[in-house]
Design goal:
Layout (H helix, E strand, L loop, with lengths): L7 E4 L5 E4 L5 E4 L21 E3 L5 H4 L2 H8 L2 E5 H9 L5 E4 L4 E4 L2 E7 L6 E3 L2 E3 L5 E6 L5 E4 L8 H9 L3 E5 L8 H11 L3 E5 L11 H11 L4 E2 L10
Parallel strand pairs: 3-4, 4-5, 5-6, 12-13, 13-14, 14-15
Antiparallel strand pairs: 1-2, 2-3, 7-8, 8-11, 9-10, 11-12
The protein binds nickel (II) ion and manganese (II) ion.
Nickel (II) ion binds next to loops.
């Protein structure tokens, strides 16, 4: 993995990203590696994890939160309801928050922002209330801002996210069906104003049919100059 302006951001497939900051802090965004068919085997084990963020309660975004939480004792940044769920499972290192707030963990700042989705937690055949879905604006030590949208439809609060936080990089779902398709993601990109868009939540399953090429075409139609950087699972932003 080559360093990128002091940080390394690797897509692990689906909605999961692995971030190593300039100061060597390891952040795992939406921990789904073990059962993630898109995650390369060599990326399923970790030497350390300092922080985990969870965007919502669906298994494809937090299935490994308990295992990795118990093993590495990372600060787990999530909403209050997911915090309660993880505490019940014996994970003691959660640090709950809610939308609009910012907290620091491992020298990195996490701002919880709005997302349009659902957040039920499937557990033992029951659905536990998982609070509201969210996205995160991650502010690195050098001020670089990365917006991880989580699972979401396009929504007009993205204009505020763009105006208030001015993200440099936006990690946007484009797969369609459960989230935005490339068409909506292009409108999201226009509101966010990020220079770089990394497509996510596509290709894992046939139903997630949106493609980075389709996103590029939609951006061109809208006249949005953002650069689409399609990664392969296991590949880092460079
Ligand atoms: Ni979801
Ligand atoms: Mn999902």
């Amino acid at each position: 993995m080559a360093p990128t302006r002091g940080y390394t951001l690797t897509w692990l497939g689906h909605g999961t990203f692995h971030l190593v900051t300039r100061d060597g802090r390891v952040v795992l965004l939406d921990p789904w590696v073990e059962g993630n068919p898109a995650c390369p085997n060599e990326h399923k084990s970790f030497e350390k994890i300092d922080v985990i963020t969870i965007s919502h309660g669906h298994g494809d975004h937090m299935a490994d939160a308990v295992t990795l939480g118990l093993k590495f004792k990372p600060t787990i940044v999530c909403n209050y309801e997911i915090h309660l769920f993880l505490q019940k499972k014996g994970v003691t290192t959660t640090s709950p928050m809610n939308k609009g707030g910012t907290q620091e963990a491992g020298g990195v700042r996490f701002t919880m922002v709005h997302a349009v989705h659902s957040s039920g937690i499937e557990d033992g055949g029951q659905v536990t209330y998982g609070g509201e879905p969210c996205g995160f604006v991650v502010t690195l030590e050098d001020g670089t801002r990365i917006y991880h949208a989580g699972d979401t439809g396009v929504h007009s609060d993205m204009a505020l996210i763009g105006e208030i936080y001015r993200p440099d990089v936006a990690l946007l779902p484009i797969g369609d069906h459960f989230t935005m398709s490339p068409r909506e993601a292009a409108y999201a990109a226009r509101m966010l104003g990020a220079r770089v868009i990394v497509p996510a939540h596509h290709g894992t399953f046939p139903v997630l049919s949106g493609t980075p090429d389709a996103l590029k075409a939609e951006l061109k139609t809208l006249g949005v100059a953002a650069e689409v950087v399609p990664l392969r699972p296991g590949e880092a932003l460079s």
